[in-house]
């Protein structure tokens, strides 16, 4: 149940913005991102970079626009964030990664809530 449609849209835009900006930054620093992914141990780091850009920019756009697949995009972004958290924020090995890991858990929670509640009600034309 959505209590405030305008606030729902604000939250959706803010959630989408994180993924859009992250994906665009990966585009603008493609080579560095691919090298970082290789350092993290991703196989085929160039393709991992391309895939992450597609997921972040594509999923972010779907959330932002409010297209009919926004619940699917939220679930995909939650899984993507979970994988990224486990690979890049290994707090059990690097204690300074604990807060980034927790932030990603909160983000996953927000995406799961979005997936669970679905889209905001759309205005329909009265006949």
Strand content: under 5%
Report the count of strand segments: 0
State the end-to-end distance.
25 Å
How many strands, what sense, and barrel or not for the largest sheet?
none
Q: What would you report as the Rg, rounded to the nearest angstrom?
A: 16 Å
User: Would you tell me the structural class of the helices and strands?
Assistant: mainly alpha
The chain-level mean pLDDT equals 89
Write the H/E string, N to C: HHHHH
Stretches where pLDDT is under 50 for at least 5 consecutive residues are: none
Global shape: globular
Q: Helix segment count?
A: 5
User: Percent of residues in helical segments?
Assistant: over 70%
Structure summary:
The chain has helices at residues 5-28, 30-40, 45-65, 70-88, 98-117.
Secondary structure: elements and pairs:
Layout: H1 5-28, H2 30-40, H3 45-65, H4 70-88, H5 98-117
Helix pairs in contact: 1-3, 2-3, 3-4, 4-5
Q: Keyphrases for this structure?
A:
127 residues, mainly alpha, 5 helices, 75% helix, globular
Q: Could you please describe the fold and organization of this structure?
A:
With 127 residues, the protein is mainly α. Helices cover 75% and strands 0% of the residues. It is built from five helices and no strands. Helix 1 runs antiparallel to helix 3 and helix 2 packs across helix 3. The longest helix has 24 residues. The model has no long low-confidence stretch (mean pLDDT 89).
């Amino acid at each position: 149940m959505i209590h405030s449609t305008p606030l729902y849209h604000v939250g959706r835009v803010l959630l989408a913005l994180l993924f859009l900006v992250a994906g665009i930054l990966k585009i603008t620093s493609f080579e560095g991102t691919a090298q970082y992914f290789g350092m993290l141990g991703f196989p085929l780091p160039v393709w991992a970079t391309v895939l992450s850009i597609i997921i972040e920019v594509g999923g972010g756009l779907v959330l932002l626009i409010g297209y009919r697949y926004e619940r699917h995009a939220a679930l995909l972004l939650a899984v993507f964030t979970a994988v990224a958290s486990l690979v890049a924020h290994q707090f059990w090995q690097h204690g300074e990664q604990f807060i980034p890991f927790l932030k990603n858990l909160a983000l996953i929670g927000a995406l799961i809530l979005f997936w669970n509640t679905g889209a905001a009600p759309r205005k329909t034309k009265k006949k």
